[in-house]
Amino acid sequence: MGSRHQKRLAPLSLRLISNPDHEVLTQLYQVEVSAHQDPWTLDDIAATFSDNTRCIGLYLKEELIGFAVICVVVDEAELYTIGVCKKYQGLGLGRKLLGATLQECLQLGATRCFLEVRVSNEVALHLYDRYGFTITGTRKNYYQGSGGNPPEDAFTMMSDLTQLPPELLCDLA
């Protein structure tokens, strides 16, 4: 990332989002729509908030530009979703968001994290590989076909969080 991008993105912050009101849910939904080809609905996002889940928001100044949702039960975490608005993709922000998300998993006592990802999502696969995720299986037709796209398989992946180098992780600010 060049110095011009760093200056433009200098006021970045990562924050825990708890008990979101309708306005924040709408912002989360807007990010979701921008980031994914098969986005969750507003109701899907609202339903993820429970005692076992955490939502980490990535903000540029006060604008929500990315988020991740994790669920932690005892010593295992699952990354439900992660995304950055399309116009901010390719700037290393997904790494920052994933690093903070996995740090939150560790702080909540998780030692492993699981996720599903489209088999065709090479950018995400590269990112997850960087954070120690390995493919553990395949779920056939996991993603529904939509918009003329056929159903797609998902890889299931797992990372041993205790083996991650500290420089990959970052705390919420």
CATH topology: Aminopeptidase
Determine the strand fraction and express it as a percent band: 25-35%
CATH C-level category: Alpha Beta
Quaternary class: single chain
> Which CATH architecture?
3-Layer(aba) Sandwich
Task: List how many beta strands DSSP finds.
Answer: 7
The percent of residues in helical segments reads 25-40%
Distance between the termini: 21 Å
What sort of overall outline do the alpha carbons produce when their principal axes are compared?
globular
The CATH fourth-level homologous superfamily? Gcn5-related N-acetyltransferase (GNAT)
Determine the mean pLDDT.
91
Number of domains: 1
* SSE order, one letter for each helix or strand: HEHHEEEHEHEE
Number of helices: 5
Structural class: alpha+beta
Rounded Rg: 16 Å
Largest sheet: 7 strands, mixed
Written overview of the protein:
The chain is of the alpha+beta class and 173 residues long. The protein is 29% helix and 35% strand. It has helices at 3-8, 22-35, 42-47, 93-107, 122-130; strands at residues 12-17, 53-60, 63-73, 76-84, 112-118, 134-143, 152-160. A hairpin with an 8-residue loop joins β6 (134-143) and β7 (152-160). The longest helix has 15 residues, at 93-107.
Features:
alpha+beta; 7 strands; globular; single chain; 5 helices; seven-stranded mixed β-sheet
